[in-house]
Amino acid sequence: MPPETIRALVDAYFTQLQAMNPQAWAENFTEDALIYDPVGNPPSKPRENAEEFFSLLTLAFKDLQLSQDHVFINSNQAAVKWTMRAEGKSGKRGIAEGISVFVMRDDKIQQVSSYWDDKAMMAQIRG
After folding, report:
1. What is the DSSP string of 21-59?
2. pLDDT tens digits for 20-75?
3. What is the dihedral of CA 33, 40, 103, 122, to 10 degrees?
4. Beta bridge partners of residue 88, listed in sequence order
5. Handedness of CA 118, 65, 8, 45 (dihedral sign)
6. Which one of 64, 71, 98, 110 is most buried, counting C-beta atoms within 10 A?
7. Integer Cα distance of 97 and 39 in angstroms
């Protein structure tokens, strides 16, 4: 898969996530895609569960900003070191860093495995 295609999919993933756009976000995935977010949690099926996932995000966050700090592409995969800055519904702000590994297939995202401390982020925004 061309690196430009991989980069475009990664960009779309983060852009649509930040924009809280479940339909556009889900279109980036294969029908059988899985997300491990964070790794250690049971996998989620983004094509089936996008609406539910985004409703949970909107319950927790008033604002969500994501930056792709470093993107490494090789073969049909990408590893992205990212930073999330968020404001919770409480008005408190939090920051988290993580790494997500993307596996692509058929010009779509097949799997995302994210490594980060979601509990620490939630503790920050809840205070």
Report:
1. -HHHHHTTEEEEEEEESSBTBPPB-HHHHHHHHHHHHHH
2. 999 999 999 999 999 999 999 999 999 999 999 999 999 999 999 999 999 999 99
3. 90
4. 61
5. positive
6. 98
7. 14
Rounded to the nearest 5 degrees, what angle is found at the Cα of 74, between the Cα atoms of 69 and 77? 80
∠ Cα 14 18 22 (to 5°)? 85
Per-residue DSSP letter, 15: H
Strand partners, 80: 71, 100
Fill in the DSSP letter of residue 121: H
Instruction: Give 107's DSSP letter.
Output: T
Indicate the average pLDDT of the chain. 96
